[in-house]
Amino acid sequence: MSEPDRTPATHDMGGAQRFRCTPVERDEEPPDEFGRRVDALRQLLAQKKLMTVDELRRGIESIPEDEYLALTYYERWLRSITTLMLEKGVVSPEELR
Amino acid sequence: MSAPARPESIAALDRLLEALRTRGVVTDEELAARQASTDSASPETGARMVARAWLDPEYRALLLRDGKAAAEAMGVSMAGAPPLGVLEDTPARHHLVVCTLCSCYPRAVLGYPPHWYKSFAYRARAVREPRAVLAEWGTALPDSVDVRVVDSTADYRWMVLPLRPAGTEGWSEDQLTSIVSRDALVGAALPQAPQGAVGG
């Protein structure tokens, strides 16, 4: 048996060294229209029992690291929601092209 | 991460919504209603819960025992929300809330989490160097005060009951509510009585 990989997953950011000495940006703008629409869509799909918060997290946490770090917060949500809706057959890949 | 969404992301959202509408899964009206109700949640609710707890020992006990029940006592619907824990600051202990894995936050009583709460830097640093983060934001805690950092999760959310500042004796619930900022509700700031404030 090989040694388990103890490197934290990308999303497991508590204490991550790479952000030491990085100032926390204080942007006080509320989420933009895109973010608020994605947020509302997630809630609505949860209300309709088409996805759960845990599924949203699994989708976000499966995004490859370079994209995870490059996408904005609600872009990660949209990526996850889209993946889930495709996986569940709620929408088809053709409809999203 | 408060950079604007890329045009291709906005287009991807439009395509997904169009497909969901065509399939009859969601309607524009439902989305607009959901968005409006989310927009209406505000940290003033959490601030009022704190102010009431400062004034009313029974409410304080309820808040510390069962945050969800205390929110519902303010008329906030907490149906389907995870439990809400309330962390009581003391002269010897300060609490700071973070969600290291993402952005869990008691939205029903605090509104949307601010950008900084969701930022990689805050998620990483709040647990390793909370005093430094607080100091950068103007809150220098003396060494005599312990800092306890608490991780909010998808299954359990946290808010802070800060110390009532000196100089607020005799204040009304409205006055007290006005000095409890959104940031104070997660321990990222302290309520401050305005200099020279006179009780009403």
Rg calculated over all Cα atoms of chain A: 16 Å
**Number of beta strands of chain B:** 4
Name the pair of protein chains with the most residues at their interface, and give those residue counts.
A-B, 56 and 53 residues
CATH-defined topology of the domain at 32-91 in chain A = Cyclin A, domain 1
Q: Give the percentage of residues in beta strands of chain B.
A: 5-15%
Mean pLDDT of chain A, nearest integer? 93
Shape estimate of chain A = globular
CATH architecture of the largest domain in chain B: Alpha-Beta Complex
Low-confidence stretches of chain A: none
Domain Nitrile hydratase alpha/Thiocyanate hydrolase gamma (chain B): 15-189
Protein name (chain B): Nitrile hydratase, alpha chain
GO molecular function (chain B): nitrile hydratase activity; transition metal ion binding
Pfam family, one (chain B): NHase_alpha
Question: Main attributes?
Answer:
heterodimer, A: 97 residues, mainly alpha, Cyclin A, domain 1, 46% helix, globular, B: 200 residues, alpha/beta, Nitrile Hydratase, Chain A, 2 domains, two-stranded parallel sheet, two-stranded parallel ribbon, 4 strands, lyase (chain B), CN_Hdrase_a/SCN_Hdrase_g_sf (chain B)
Concise structural overview:
The complex is a heterodimer of chains A (97) and B (200). Chain A is mainly α. Chain A is 46% helix and 0% strand.
Structural features, described:
- The complex is a heterodimer of chains A (97) and B (200).
- Chain A has a domain at 32-91: Cyclin A, domain 1.
- Chain A is 46% helix and 0% strand.
- Chain A is built from four helices and no strands.
- The longest helix of chain A is centred in the middle third of the chain and has 15 residues, at 33-47.
- The N and C termini of chain A lie far apart (44 Å).
- Chain B is of the alpha/beta class and 200 residues long.
- Chain B has two domains: 10-39, no CATH class; 43-186, Nitrile Hydratase, Chain A (Alpha-Beta Complex), CATH 3.90.330.
- Chain B is built from ten helices and four strands, in the order αααααββααααββα.
- Chain B has helices at residues 7-22, 28-40, 43-55, 57-65, 67-72, 107-110, 115-118, 120-128, 130-136, 173-178, and strands at residues 84-88, 93-98, 146-151, 157-161.
- In chain B, the strands form two sheets. Chain B has a two-stranded parallel ribbon.
- The longest helix of chain B is centred in the N-terminal third of the chain and has 16 residues, at 7-22.
- The radius of gyration of chain B is 19 Å and the shape is globular.
- The model of chain B has no long low-confidence stretch (mean pLDDT 94).
- At the A-B interface, helix 1, helix 2 and helix 4 of A face helix 1, helix 2, helix 7 and helix 8 of B.
